[in-house]
């Protein structure tokens, strides 16, 4: 070894080695001090999402929607590389985030006190809440007389009425036909039987204006009068039942009308939690489309879910089939969800605020939620 080299100046080779070591040391320090930078630069962030139109949906194999656009803008703003991982249910999405399989989650995820215990959330990205969707044909503002008139029970009764009227009418016709002083004006069959039917019908409605003269005719009249009393009682009961049934199945106008109804919703969502707390019978589905289908096929009386999701459906796929009713009854805000103490939260918040300040957020909001005339 050259002693001069040690004492007075480092030889070229050693100088290079020292520089490399210093650089490595500096980089290691950077990695230790700033893990965000380290991980971010290493590989793509895993962003969990789930299909919930109009926030996230698939179009020709591509993910689109408000939340997708929003995340892409944030990532672009922060110069981050990321890829989406689609989960089936909210529970799956949250589990992937909690265990760190995903770095964050974005869809239509409500910020709740319970979730805040296990996760971190970004600043609110959207104001939402719960609302009710019902089939369009179930909406009527007044009790429908037509529904009662057209009820199968009442139609059956009217059919029976026309048939049984023929029995006393014929008995009276044949017993009165021979009598000169009889009740009937016409003795020939058709006009005579028509008169007798008229008499039987008006007796049934307790409005008869003539009585048979023959002995058999009178006996028939008395029996028919008793039958009329029973008929009127059955008729009243049938109409009352039809009205009551209509009221029971009647309009849903708000959450107060939900008990006793079959309500479809999404498993492990905030809506499912709300309905459970209210002791309302629920049908829980993993995908919102399945809840819409249950409503359309009559398997459910209403769908309770996030208002913007239901509004979007009623204006697009469900137009003319389903309608949103009543107010937003539980306000919620959506946020981007992170595992607790995530190093990305602050960074994402910064990106989000920048998008709100520079008008990008508003542009995306208008793209997905403002109805263009
Ligand atoms: N916003 C609801 C929640 O966070 C529903 C989310 C969903 O089903 O995607 O529970």
CATH class of the largest domain: Alpha Beta
Determine Rg (CA atoms, Å): 38 Å
How many domain regions?
Answer: 3
CATH architectural group of the largest domain: 3-Layer(aba) Sandwich
Query: How many strands appear in the DSSP assignment?
Result: 12
Assembly of the depicted chains: single chain
Which fold name fills CATH's third level, the topology of the largest domain? D-Maltodextrin-Binding Protein, domain 2
Main-sheet strand order equals: 9-8-10-7-11
H/E element sequence: HHHEEEHEHEHEEHHHHEHEHEHEEHH
Largest β-sheet summary: 5 strands, mixed
Q: What structural class is derived from the secondary structure elements?
A: alpha/beta
Number of H- or I-type helical stretches:
15
Strand-helix topology:
Elements: H1 3-7, H2 12-33, H3 35-42, E1 45-50, E2 57-59, E3 62-64, H4 66-78, E4 82-87, H5 90-98, E5 104-105, H6 113-118, E6 119-121, E7 126-135, H7 145-149, H8 152-176, H9 189-204, H10 215-248, E8 263-266, H11 270-277, E9 282-285, H12 288-296, E10 302-306, H13 307-315, E11 322-334, E12 337-339, H14 345-357, H15 360-369
Glutamic acid binds at residues 50, 52, 90, 107-110, 266, 269-270, 306.
